[in-house]
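To whoever picks this up:

The parser on our side crashed when reading a file containing two proteins. I've narrowed it down to the boundary between the first structure block and the second sequence. Both blocks are reproduced below exactly, byte for byte. First block:
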Amino acid sequence: MIKKLTLLQQNLVWAIPISMSLGLIYGYLFDAANLRSLIIPITFVMIYPMMVTLNVRSVFKGHDVKLQVVTQIINFILVPILVFFLGKFFFAGASEKLGLWAVGLFLIGVLPASGMTISWTGFAKGNKEAATKMLVFGLVLGSLAAPIFTKVFMGATVEVDMLHMFQQIAIFVFVPLIAGVFTQMFLRKKYGDADWEQRLKPKFPPFSALGVVMIAFVAISLKARGIIAHPEDILKILVPLVVFYLISYVMLTLIGKLLFSREDAIAMVYGVVMRDLSIALAIAMTAFGKEGSTIALLIAMAYIVQIQSAAWYIKIVPKIFGPPTTETAKGFVPEGVVR
């Protein structure tokens, strides 16, 4: 089973569109409302494996204060402002769904720290330790800031129950985080660090990939009949997503070239562009009632753009930042999860 899930994880660029297509068919042919009950368990399937593999101890190592501060300033000031105005520009109009898509785009902007930050940084021979810190800081700061930011920026568009949103974030972030840390401690103590790193740790991320595929299926199923009735909605959603990621890559590349070394710059790029779509999707589908499925449609589509753009960017990393140093070129074993 692990081999099949690993294959799924390695081919998410194709697996997610296929899952969404199947969801479209299912949601058109059948009543998908009963799938809502699967959202919470599927979300745990996505998030818990990443928390188990997270190396929290690395947060207390190194001396990269400048890199971490600049990254989180971008994550929590520049990106939220960017997605807010992109939403205003691309989703202007009286239609309710336009406003809800703007909320979805904003949720992507205020929830950084995808687990794939570490993996893509490693693929590009960047600073994985710095990327891990960005992930931990982004998880904590994003979880605390998201309800406040959403209320302040998007409160006029959709009703935001901050307390309920905090509760949902606690369920989807802090409970799995605590459980994951204790799970890792237990397994390290029982089997030893070497066995944990080489044999046990790689078994967790593929389950998260399964969760991503399943939640994409559910999200599209719930909106299938609306999508088929208005196929032009897909284009309306994809254009601002492509613009958002394009602006992000250009901005981060310039900042990285100006301020940081090759390895640190790569970590910063992926520490910002790899948004936490899993948690954003879970929050959309649980914290906004019946409007959540419309919000979730945009977030589900973002998976395709985010993963594909990360793969394209890695091909031009050597041209932008130069070849890896001897230290970082020794090889990389992927860690983290696709989120």
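<<boundary where parser fails>>
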Amino acid sequence: MEIAVTFRHMDTSDALRDYAEEKLARVHKYIDEPIDVQAVLTVESKKRHKAVVTISAKGITIKASAEVVDDMYAAIDEVIDKLERQLKRYKEKLKRHTPRSGKERAITKTIFEASSIEEESAEPKVIRSHSFSLKPLSVDEAVMQMDLLHKDFIVFSDDTSEKINVLYRRKDGNYGLIVPEEG
């Protein structure tokens, strides 16, 4: 398990780093695969202590954050508690799901400059492009992944039809699913 601790707007502290690494080692019991953990410890406006942790392991990414006044150790404890609750919930859902088979797809996300799209004669200017693999998921798994990442939408390959779908969180708190038509 690789743990990277980053300090922002505060001095680097070996005691805090050791404490965070010791606490983060507890999440290893929930995930067996190789784990990459990134913890960012930030002090904002001299009083608010914030801890943000992102865990990546074998196709799953989990993110949690906690904010506490005047105590970074309490912020670390709170974010670890949140992560453990998320990982327990994820592990329970995995026990109920049967593994799906399907082919993994590679897709590319491209971000264009807005002003270059509005100009009729010019080609759109690419700001950033990112390629990643798209694993087949059921709708339940996509909802779970979206909740774990705290995202408003997720693009995934349906495990039965192998078509690319979009799942999004509606303003009323429910979920919407965009499925391509047969054609």
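After patching the parser it read the second block fine. The first strand starts at residue 2 and ends at 8. The chain has two domains: 2-96, 105-178.
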